[in-house]
């Protein structure tokens, strides 16, 4: 059916910015804005564009085919293209140089593939610009890990002690059983004790 064919084509082109769509950068530093695309039927004369806050175009490029590298059509002077499409991944990432606080916002990587009936797809990154990177305080985490580890260690030690004690008790009980078994068949009459054998009765007088 034509409708199903169009749906299949629409989902053939995918654009990704990685596992997380948030990036934090230091003021006056360079920041990488990653973007890759995939297509199951290949591409021809593919067009990709980076937008800032949905409206401002900061980079525009074209890729003739899989065997050729992207061509820069237009770009912001502070934007550098660092991607490649002749390798394994179709990488169309850019680097924003000398980041300022005013650069914080939404960055959209938009791709259009004429080979897929001009299928279009995009992915978004949110950039935050800070004056100083805040170090994560892992003290509480380390304390929790230490306490949990200590409790696990104590539990293992307790289980080991319990097994040793149970082993000793079992051995002791086994020893007592052996003593009882061996003494129950002995004749202790020679030691002045009541023996286990029946006493010999004198023959009746005639």
Automatic annotation (TrEMBL):
Residues 2-126 form the Ig-like domain. The chain crosses the membrane at residues 140-161. Keywords: Disulfide bond, Glycoprotein, Immunoglobulin domain, Membrane, Signal, Transmembrane, Transmembrane helix. Residues 181-191 have a biased composition (Polar residues). GO terms for molecular function: sodium channel regulator activity; transmembrane transporter binding. GO terms for cellular component: voltage-gated sodium channel complex. Pfam families: V-set. GO terms for biological process: cardiac muscle cell action potential involved in contraction; regulation of ventricular cardiac muscle cell membrane repolarization. The keyword Signal applies. It is found in: Membrane. It comes from the Eukaryota. Residues 178-206 are annotated as: Disordered. It is a single-pass type I membrane protein. This is SCN4B protein. The gene is Scn4b.
